[in-house]
Backbone:
């Protein structure tokens, strides 16, 4: 199975000023594409060749896992964003309040996870095996599906996600990303 770069659900410049066209050209157009290209080369002739990408993430290790997980993570991240503000549905608010106390406390915890992750990686909101919403930090290509969790939202905190627009101020990027999350999409993953 040949993996390909998914189309964006918006134009390449639609997320500006939170994520500029230049950032998107590098982040989506170059970094994400490279993970896809590397994955396709690595799985050719291997037991992973005909697997869906999420199955590769669950079962592979090493370089194949890293490229598959990064491709999966990026596709998930970009598909969760919206150039137009999207209100958080009540169903999601209720679950967040139940598990975090309030939407503000959830955002503070997610922000802390994203800003305190040492080095490169991802901050995730997931539903664990017991149906509880949890926040995790995953270094490098880490993905909560490897723990049996169901991802709902992620924030990419690799420097290529924000450095062009925010330089070394990861916290400003994280704060602004909340304004472009498609909360309907997050709620639909519950």
Residues:
């Amino acid at each position: 199975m040949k993996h390909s770069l998914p189309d964006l659900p918006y134009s390449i410049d639609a997320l500006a000023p939170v994520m500029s066209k230049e950032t998107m050209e590098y982040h989506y157009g170059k970094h994400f594409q490279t993970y896809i290209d590397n994955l396709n080369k690595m799985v050719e002739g291997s037991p992973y060749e005909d697997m869906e990408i999420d199955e590769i993430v669950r079962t592979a290790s090493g370089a194949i896992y890293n490229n598959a997980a990064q491709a999966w993570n990026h596709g998930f991240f970009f598909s969760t964003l919206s150039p137009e503000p999207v209100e958080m549905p009540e169903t999601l608010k209720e679950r967040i309040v139940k598990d975090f106390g309030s939407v503000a406390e959830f955002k503070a915890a997610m922000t802390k996870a994203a800003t305190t992750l040492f080095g490169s990686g991802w901050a995730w909101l997931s539903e664990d095996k017991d149906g509880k919403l949890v926040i995790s930090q995953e270094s490098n290509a880490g993905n909560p599906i490897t723990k049996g969790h169901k991802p709902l939202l992620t924030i990419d905190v690799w420097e290529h996600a924000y450095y062009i627009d925010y330089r070394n101020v990861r916290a400003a990027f994280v704060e602004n990303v909340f304004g472009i999350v498609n909360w309907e999409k997050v709620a639909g993953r519950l």
Notes: The longest strand covers residues 121-127. The chain has two domains: 21-79, 90-188.
